Amino acid sequence: MKEYEIASHKDLEELYQLQKIAFESEAEMIGSRNIPALLESYEEFERDFDNWIVVIKRDSQGKIMASARYFKKNDTIEVGRLMVAPSFRNQGLAFSIMKNVEDHSRGSKFELFTCTRSWINIRLYEKLGYRIFKEGIEDNELPLAYMEKCINENT
Length: 155
Fold this sequence. Notes:
Oligomer: single chain
Number of helices: 5
CATH topology: Aminopeptidase
Strand order of the largest sheet: 1-2-3-4-5-7-6
CATH class: Alpha Beta
CATH architecture: 3-Layer(aba) Sandwich
Number of strands: 7
Structural class: alpha+beta
Helix content: 25-40%
Radius of gyration: 15 Å
Shape: globular
Largest sheet: 7 strands, mixed
Distance between the termini: 31 Å
C-alpha cells in the first residue's frame, strides 16, 4: 500500500462520495448545510478537479480514507477540502495528509479557510502552525477564518 498518491480521474466518483460524507459532520458541527463542498454538484466537482493536485491515502483494500487538494499561485500554496472518512477519524490522518501536502508542494506560504465555528479544524490547523489572518462572511453567509502558514526557507 502506498503511503500517499495523487488522485486521477478514475477516483472522481469515490472522492465525490467521500466529500459528501466527510462534510456532513462539518455541517452538523457548525449548524448549517450551506457548505460549498455539500452544495457542489458532481458536474461542478468534475470540472474543477483538474485545477487541483489531489493527494489521497487509501486503506489496505484500496478505498480512499483521506484526501486534501492544493494548487500553487505565485509562491503561495492554496489548500482545500481536507477530508477524512468518518470511520478513519481520530487516527492522525488529517494531520498526516496536511504534512504530506506541505512536504511535497513548493511555496513560501500556505493558505486555507474554514468556518469560524469549525473549532476542530481550527485546532488542527493551529497544531500545524497555521494562524488566522483574516475573518469574513462569504456569499453563502458562513463566517470564515482564513489561515496561513509562512515557511522559513532557512529551516
